[in-house]
Structures are given as structure tokens and as C-alpha cells.
Task: structure prediction
Amino acid sequence: DAGVIQSPRHEVTEMGQEVTLRCKPISGHNSLFWYRQTMMRGLELLIYFNNNVPIDDSGMPEDRFSAKMPNASFSTLKIQPSEPRDSAVYFCASSQQGDSPLHFGNGTRLTVT
Amino acid sequence: GESVGLHLPTLSVQEGDNSIINCAYSNSASDYFIWYKQESGKGPQFIIDIRSNMDKRQGQRVTVLLNKTVKHLSLQIAATQPGDSAVYFCAEANSGYSTLTFGKGTMLLVSP
Result:
């Protein structure tokens, strides 16, 4: 099992540019989560999907952030336009629905200058 | 001075010692409690979980204790090894894992 796969591992971009982060969940998992990690705020849930449907996006900071899950094996998190305060590590995680622990990818480190 | 948020609580132990990492949670309605380990440059890795109807659960070299009265969770690591050095997060969840909320984390440093 390859685990949750995220790309890119690192992204450096200038303020105002569009950023797209990608995630491939573990095959067979039907729940997918996007988290953001910073030193100041720790791990914060941004949005999660069940069976490709967004269930709770209350953690998405503002309209500049959007997430999609067009099929069971792929999700994207887009920031447009990006700002320096978006700099963080973004994690994707997946699980089987129900009492199943989350499996995290190794994250995308985003730096917005 | 620097904000507290910039520094993680740190526990330093010698190899072979037992380690205890503590966590206070906030939601008395939480059903599940989970410990994760995060190594540098990696995502959090599941260690062990416990349901609210239990007060102790053991795994391989790890034990989780839950005290619902004072809303306290602890992770005990027996015979700590250098490979255990990482940041450890507790997390609480309600109604399954969809509402998983993470604590701030504790850094464990194990010296040989």
C-alpha cells in the first residue's frame, strides 16, 4: 500500500499566484480530509469529503480557498490568489468511513513570498 | 518575548527510560481519543486510540490512559528508543473521525 500521496512536496510561489495541491487517497478509503499545519495554530481541519461529497468546509479560511474531489482517487486544494499568510504545510488524510483512524500523507510545504 | 505558540512542550529522556506524554482535552462529549506521532518532514502517523468507554488500552510498547473525570489523556512509551523522537499529538473526535481535533503537540527527545 503506497499510502496517501501528495504532490508537490514543496511549492514556492509569489503572492497573487494560484496554487494547486494534489492528493491521492488510499484505495478503498471513502473519506478524505485536508488539514493545514502551522507552528502558531497547529493542525487545523480545512474540509472533508465523504464519498467525494464535501461534508464540512467550515474550516476553509476564506473564499480564496477551494477544494474538489472529482473522483474517489483524487482531490485538489486550490488557493487563488495566494498570500504570504497561507504559508504552511498542507496535509491530506484519508480513512474508511466510520471508526477508522486517519492516514496522512507527507504533506506539501507551501511558501508564499 | 516570543509567543508560547512558537514553542512546543518538550520531554527529554534517556534511551531505555519510560516516557509519559500528557494531554488535556476540551470536549467532554468526545467519543474517541487518538495519539499520533509526527517525525520531521512527515505526516502524522497513527499510534493508538481509545474509546470513551475505556480507561486503558495497550499496544506494542505503548499504553494510553484516559481519565474522563479530569479530561486527561496520557501516552506511555516503554523502553523509549531514539527512533521514538518525534512530536506527539493527541486528538479527540466526536461521532467518528470526521471531527478530529488535534492538540498542540509535545516534542519527545530521546538521547542515546
